[in-house]
Amino acid sequence: MEWLSVLGETSVARALIRAPVLYIFASAAHILSLAMLVGASVILDLRLLGRFKSLPLAETAELLSRIAALALCLAVLTGAVLFSVRPVEYAGNTAFLIKLLLVGLGTANAVFVHLSRDWAEMIVEQQASLRLRIGALISLATWLSAVLAGRWIGFL
Amino acid sequence: MNRTQSLSALALSSFAGAALLAGAALAHHGWSWAEADQIDLTGTITAISFAPPHPTLELETAEGPWRIELGNPNQTQRSGFVEGVAAVGDEITVRGNRSLDPDEKRLKAVRVIVEGTNYDIYPSRIVTN
């Protein structure tokens, strides 16, 4: 745990503790990243599950998956900044640990789906296979649960 | 409903169920968890953090360790209780509202007193005898 308390002394963490207004910006940026990530993912997942059929599948999948990937990077970055101010406390927070697990599962699922042959075929054939639809369900469940677990952190 | 529709309905309803469970968790934000009456606690600081979102300190008192929750970072700064005013090992007095749960030694502070100086975090909430 000692390396964690060292993290709380880094210049980024110190700046956020000294000037709470910086924390507000970091927190708002984190929320914005989540909105982009969950917004893009949910629409894409529902499209794969057969909703919003007026949207062309391949184009929608390529655009929304790219937005989601960028948003995930921003969320991890801003999340690390927020984590740095109270590292030891967050590391002992069950909701935070569950959230990390869910984010890991969601990311692994997204990478797995994106690299699968089913994804490549979907881009060509404009048709989502059963495996892609199962992936979409896993995606919905993990990202929405991750939001819930994240909100739970402050209530333990 | 076709199969994909029932699948998405299932996903959404399981999320709604989880959201209902979340409502049962009682927040330590605000004042809903604390008693209306205020108490004074005197003790030695064993840990202190001004980190957002909620500055806190740990106090070792005659009746054991207490966790003291201060205001939000800006409210706490405005009271004058900033880094350097008190350190681990200092004896201070804190006035505030204790948790409704008598077994939980947690206090929402409205005033911190260090060496005779008052730092009023929630001036309008302070009850004077």
TrEMBL record, chain A:
Residues 22-155 form the DUF6644 domain. The chain crosses the membrane at residues 20-43, 63-83, 95-113, 134-153. It comes from the Bacteria. The keyword Transmembrane helix applies. InterPro entries: DUF6644. Keywords: Membrane, Transmembrane, Transmembrane helix. This is DUF2214 domain-containing protein. It comes from Agrobacterium albertimagni. The lineage of its organism: Bacteria, Pseudomonadati, Pseudomonadota, Alphaproteobacteria, Hyphomicrobiales.
TrEMBL record, chain B:
The keyword Signal applies. This is DUF5666 domain-containing protein. Keywords: Signal. InterPro entries: DUF6152. Pfam families: DUF6152. Residues 1-27 form the signal peptide. It comes from Agrobacterium albertimagni.
